[in-house]
Amino acid sequence: MASKSNALDTNVKDLRRIGGNLKTLANDTLDKAQKAENYLHTESSKNINKIVEDYTTRVLGWGFQFTDHILDILNNQLAKCRPVTNIYDATVVVLCNQALYPFNGFWLSIGWCLFFFIPAIIFCVKLAKHYRRMNYESDFDQGMDAEMYEMGQHDAPPHYSQSQEKKQWANPKNSVYPQAPPGRC
């Protein structure tokens, strides 16, 4: 039993040594976790933005490096032969300057026409009521009612002519398209 007591005493001493150290380790771990959480809340967005910026610069740099390499090959290795350079320059001028620019100008002009034409249509429709012909009733002030004349109940007045009849029915009741009076067509 003495040996078991000594073994138990040794285990208790070992546990005290580990347990005292365990408490400080746990406190240190909690402090580090708190610092990491604070860092994530305050500094992580800045670091993520910097990492994304660096990555995009790196990826775009590959494209720029490739175009620089191609232009260097065209200018220094391929351009040593003057006829090939002339062919390349003529192709660029024909495709870009003489074909693509006028095509882009055509579509640009169509776009500007649509941009201004649609509001102009709306504006014209809104103003159309102001430009319609109005009824001329000054000839009928001599005691003859226009509706009775149009219905054929009275003979035409002596001062009445065909052009005045056209003025009369040019826009009855503010309609869009003129219509002939009933019984006159």
From TrEMBL:
Transmembrane segments: 106-125
Keywords, comma-separated and alphabetical: Glycoprotein, Membrane, Transmembrane, Transmembrane helix
Keyword Hydrolase: no
Keyword Transmembrane helix included in the entry's annotation: yes
InterPro entries found in the cross-reference section: Prominin
Subcellular location: Membrane
Superkingdom as given in the UniProt entry: Eukaryota
Region Disordered: start-end pairs: 155-185
One Pfam family matching this protein: Prominin
A Gene Ontology cellular-component term: membrane
Membrane-topology descriptor: Multi-pass membrane protein
Similarity-based family: Belongs to the prominin family.
Name of the protein this chain belongs to: Prominin-like protein
